[in-house]
Amino acid sequence: MAAVERTVATRLDLGLRGPAKLVFSVAVAQGAPLSRESLAITASGEAMTPTELVDVTGNRLQVLDAPAGRLTLDYEAVVSGQISPAPVDEFDLITYLRPSRYCESDTLGPTAVSEFGGLADAELLAAVTGWVAGKLTYVPGSSLPTDGAVRTLLGRQGVCRDFGHLSIALLRALNVPARLAAVFAPGLSPMEYHAVCEAYVDGGWYVVDPTQLAPRQSLVRVATGRDAADTAFLTNFGGMVTLDAMEVTAVVDDFGTDDGSELIQLR
Q1: Dihedral angle over CA of 230, 162, 87, 184, nearest 10
Q2: Cα–Cα dist 59/225, whole Å
Q3: If 0-12 CB within 10 Å is exposed, 13-18 middle and 19+ buried, where does residue 51 land?
Q4: 27 in Cβ contact with 72 (< 8 Å)
Q5: Between β-strands 46-48 and 34-43, what pairing exists: parallel, antiparallel or unpaired?
Q6: Could you tell me the pLDDT band of residue 58, with boundaries at 50, 70 and 90?
Q7: Nearest Cα to 171, choosing from 94, 109, 229, 263?
Q8: pLDDT surpasses 80 at 215
Q9: Contacts by residues 85-94 (CB-CB < 8 Å, ≥ 24 positions apart)
Q10: Buried b vs exposed e over 26-49: b needs ≥16 C-beta within 10 Å?
Q11: Which of 35, 5, 62 is closest to 223 using CA atoms?
Q12: What three-state secondary structure class fits 149?
């Protein structure tokens, strides 16, 4: 894939009923070739500077002790060129094989073996992508924050994170390491944060996205984790927080075509 330039941005408007520690995961993950990046946070009209923490997966967390009142976050970045493929870590391969809160691979083991037993590598990823796409209907607002892969399969509907969780659970049940990636997704409509599955096959991490809502070639990684518990764009501790408005934009200078048949990495 030729190098492309991707411009991404987000704006969050929050209301805080009391002081709270806020953790934002909105910045492009560590390692991206950034030609421009800016982050501005104002609370009750005053500029605030968060502390940035970077975890072992390259997730960049912006941590802030915020007062009660109105808070606005504005973030923008330009990613020029491709990012190196995600590194492979032996601890990751163990972590992403275990069942997790939203990906109950132990419960879905019999289903996975029945549907996909005997498949491997690219053939397995294609089969899981098609199966999940055929079982679920994408319905905005249809899932609860506590829904996991099992409830998603029973309900037959969900949003991107639900499609991702079910894919992850099925793959882990077949001893394929799998994880969730929160991404900016040029071409997504309606535009918002997106979530996809990444599976470890053939020596690398490859994108599985049964929603097929955006070309995988242009995705930009924000956060990586076991499931949505590790990749939320906002976590708060303390006072009650309301998300009053959110805007996300993501554009690319040259869209690639994605018919779902190739193994594609987040680059």
Answers
A1: -90
A2: 9
A3: exposed
A4: no
A5: antiparallel
A6: very high
A7: 109
A8: yes
A9: 85/204, 85/205, 85/265, 85/266, 85/267, 86/198, 86/204, 86/205, 86/221, 86/224, 86/265, 86/266, 88/200, 88/203, 88/204, 88/205, 92/57, 92/177, 92/179, 93/177, 93/200
A10: bbbbeebeeeeeebebebeeeebe
A11: 62
A12: helix
What is the spatial distance between Cα 29 and Cα 165, in angstroms, rounded to a whole number? 21
**What residues pair up with 174 in beta bridges, in sequence order?**
none
Contact partners, residue 17, CB within 8 Å, separation at least 6: 68, 239, 240, 241, 242
Which residues are registered as beta bridge partners of 75?
A: 10, 39
The structure tokens listed for 99 are: 């069942």
Q: Which tokens hold the place of 218?
A: 């242009």
Average pLDDT over the chain reads 94
Would you state the structure tokens that stand for residue 120, as one six-digit string?
């491997």
Query: Are the C-beta atoms of residues 72 and 48 closer than 8 Å to each other?
Result: no
Q: What is the pTM (predicted TM-score) of this model?
A: 0.95
- Which residue segments constitute the domains of the chain, with CATH numbers given? 5-82+234-250 (2.60.40.2250), 90-231 (3.10.620.30)
d(CA 57, CA 142): 30
At 158-183, the pLDDT tens digits run 999 999 999 999 999 999 999 999 99
